[in-house]
Amino acid sequence: MSAINTSENPRDIAVDVRPAEGLPPEIIDPTVPVIYIDDLAARRGDGIFETMMVRAGRVRNLDLHRDRFVRGASLLDLPAPEVDRWLQATDMALSAWDDLGGGEAALRWMYSRGRESTGSVTGWVTISAESPSVVRQREQGVRVMTAHRGFSLSISDDSPWALVGAKTLSYAMNMAALRHAASRGLDDVIFIGDDDRVLEGPTSTVVAVTGRTMVTPSQQAGVLPGTTQAALFALARRRGWETEQRPLTVADLRAAGGVWLVSSVRIHARVTELDGVELPRPATADDVEALAVEAATA
């Protein structure tokens, strides 16, 4: 009774964290079945995950991801992750990845409520190579459409069970939005809420830049706290830039000097077109992107 892992890349690495058994993490074959059909990760998307960048054999901004992972588990009422076990599994995965030749990659922590039949949580650490589309979008930018997310900006107060602020496995709507954009010949989406308020991308945080000021939407508006955005803003402040977290509208994005989608593995993707309107590359673009790379790979 297991779901098939369809990975065909012989360089993929997988580690079973085995949080329920209390046993040490174990390297597993990524081409064989590992998830039982009654695991709530597959059955209901009931769990959390983190995706991190691997460069030069090391996970970047690990502390930020670890803290968000622990916070997400708390929001879902999952048992508190044994962080040392996850770090041990990460070291094992990195060592195995290095043995296979290493290189830039995405490392993921996946933590599920586990099997419905046993009530025991499950978890895995995986590594896979950085995709060509990630590199292309970093280098060439993205054409983007805005799309209503479909809930009120007061959702955190009205519906505390909405898990705003947790990076859950329930990404079906986000992936559907990206497929819809692709069907229109576009690369990505920026979600908006009431009154054209900007939220986030399906897999990214929005950053608008004018002059030497960076702005990102308020997290109180139902935005997942972005690890790359946090690292970027911290570095930018040290370099003399102004940073703000405040409400943004679509009109604000159009009026900004430049707009970027930032995330852990892609790092940065400049928005070259927004709802059919071209956004020229600003004079500060090289500086913004250099800061983003430095912050993401620190």
Automatic annotation (TrEMBL):
<dbReference type="InterPro" id="IPR043131">
    <property type="entry name" value="BCAT-like_N"/>
</dbReference>
<dbReference type="GO" id="GO:0046394">
    <property type="term" value="P:carboxylic acid biosynthetic process"/>
</dbReference>
<dbReference type="InterPro" id="IPR043132">
    <property type="entry name" value="BCAT-like_C"/>
</dbReference>
<keyword id="KW-0456">Lyase</keyword>
<dbReference type="Pfam" id="PF01063">
    <property type="entry name" value="Aminotran_4"/>
</dbReference>
<protein>
    <submittedName>
        <fullName>Putative 4-amino-4-deoxychorismate lyase</fullName>
        <ecNumber>4.1.3.38</ecNumber>
    </submittedName>
</protein>
<dbReference type="InterPro" id="IPR001544">
    <property type="entry name" value="Aminotrans_IV"/>
</dbReference>
<dbReference type="GO" id="GO:0008696">
    <property type="term" value="F:4-amino-4-deoxychorismate lyase activity"/>
</dbReference>
<dbReference type="InterPro" id="IPR036038">
    <property type="entry name" value="Aminotransferase-like"/>
</dbReference>
<dbReference type="GO" id="GO:0005829">
    <property type="term" value="C:cytosol"/>
</dbReference>
<dbReference type="InterPro" id="IPR050571">
    <property type="entry name" value="Class-IV_PLP-Dep_Aminotrnsfr"/>
</dbReference>
<comment type="similarity">
    <text>Belongs to the class-IV pyridoxal-phosphate-dependent aminotransferase family.</text>
</comment>
